[in-house]
Amino acid sequence: MTQKIQTGMKLKTLTTIGIGGTASWFAEPIDVSELRECLRFALDNSLEVFPLGRGANTIFGDFDGLVLSTRRLKGIKVERKEKALRVEVMAGTPLSELVNLSLRENLEGFYRLAGFPATVGGAVAMNAGAFGYETSRHLVELEFMDWESRVHAVKASELEFSYRSSPFPEMGIVVSAVFELPFCAGSVREEYQRVVSRRKSTQPINVPTSGSTFKNPPGDYAGRLLEKVGMKGYRVGDVAFSDLHANFLVNLGNGSYTQVVKILEEAKRRVYEEFGITLQEEVKLVESGCADGRKV
Ligand SMILES: Cc1cc2nc3c(=O)[nH]c(=O)nc-3n(C[C@H](O)[C@H](O)[C@H](O)COP(=O)(O)OP(=O)(O)OC[C@H]3O[C@@H](n4cnc5c(N)ncnc54)[C@H](O)[C@@H]3O)c2cc1C
């Protein structure tokens, strides 16, 4: 076994909601060659692999496999072009660094994603979005490592991105991404401030949460449906739907994965009975046998 791989890793501090069991294996590679070593280890030992970024949309149960954190794969390279900044970013870089760069350089796009925790790799995999902008919008190309640890460079136009969906992590682990962010004619700072204050007033951003729990169904909002069926503020043990935003799950102290599963079942049941709509989880519920990533 490579020295870099730990056993019996407690997972709850690795997610923003602070809920989680134990992973049998855990690693935090610092570069592509360590990442390759970790994947080879998983391959040799027939392990499931779950790539983890900031854990801002992830809730763990117990996971008998390898959790591979990308948080140490960091770095940004910038190339100035006539009308845009070409930005190459390693997957573990915090998304906030792209937001800050956008403010400094007055770039279109990423300032709209201000105020939520994420790594760039996690934002690409989730095609994270807000206020009419999605991560894939100015994505030009990326590199990923497949489950046999081969690195591929692909153009974004060859990949399918849609609402909160991408081919990752099914296809492998995003290692780096290249964006071409156009310079904006007007000032982005004012719009950025509107985004931040709207987020503060409508979302529970200062408590442990995993962001949106369910995807919005076509033509509607999961939060509206959940509120209508009485889920706003509804609590199971120490897990509740926020009083501020019915689609945000919060941990009130000592929430558990079992409580999460129970409250989600109740929410889905109520919405289905009232509206005939089956809500789909946006949040990733990760336990052995049902994780995104490498399956065995
Ligand atoms: C307060 C709050 C507000 C939020 N608001 C929004 C919002 O407005 N819009 C929005 O879209 N989301 C929002 N989120 C959710 C979350 O921030 C996004 O989904 C974000 O993109 C998750 O990034 P992450 O690095 O934490 O991913 P993780 O939670 O670590 O992982 C999410 C998924 O991406 C995969 N993944 C992670 N890194 C990689 C990689 N390098 N390669 C391949 N797969 C990878 C994981 O396997 C998993 O399937 C919010 C969350 C919080 C806590």
The CATH topology of the largest domain turns out to be Uridine Diphospho-n-acetylenolpyruvylglucosamine Reductase, domain 3
- What's the number of domains? 3
**Strand arrangement across the biggest beta sheet:** 6-7-12-10-11
Second-tier CATH architecture of the largest domain: 2-Layer Sandwich
Q: What compounds are bound to the protein?
A: flavin-adenine dinucleotide
Strand percentage lies at 25-35%
* Residue windows where pLDDT falls under 50 for at least 5 positions: none
Given this structure, which CATH class of the largest domain is correct? Answer: Alpha Beta
Please compute the radius of gyration using only Cα atoms: 19 Å
Description:
The protein has six helices and 17 strands. With 296 residues, it is α+β, with helices and mostly antiparallel strands. The protein folds into three domains: 6-69, Uridine Diphospho-n-acetylenolpyruvylglucosamine Reductase, domain 2, CATH 3.30.43; 76-182, Uridine Diphospho-n-acetylenolpyruvylglucosamine Reductase, domain 3 (2-Layer Sandwich); 214-280, UDP-N-acetylenolpyruvoylglucosamine reductase, C-terminal domain (Uridine Diphospho-n-acetylenolpyruvylglucosamine Reductase, domain 1). The protein has a five-stranded antiparallel sheet with strand order 6-7-12-10-11, with helices on one face. The longest helix has 19 residues, at 257-275. The model has no long low-confidence stretch (mean pLDDT 95). The protein binds flavin-adenine dinucleotide. The site of flavin-adenine dinucleotide has 37 residues, from strand 3, helix 3, strand 8, strand 12 and strand 13.
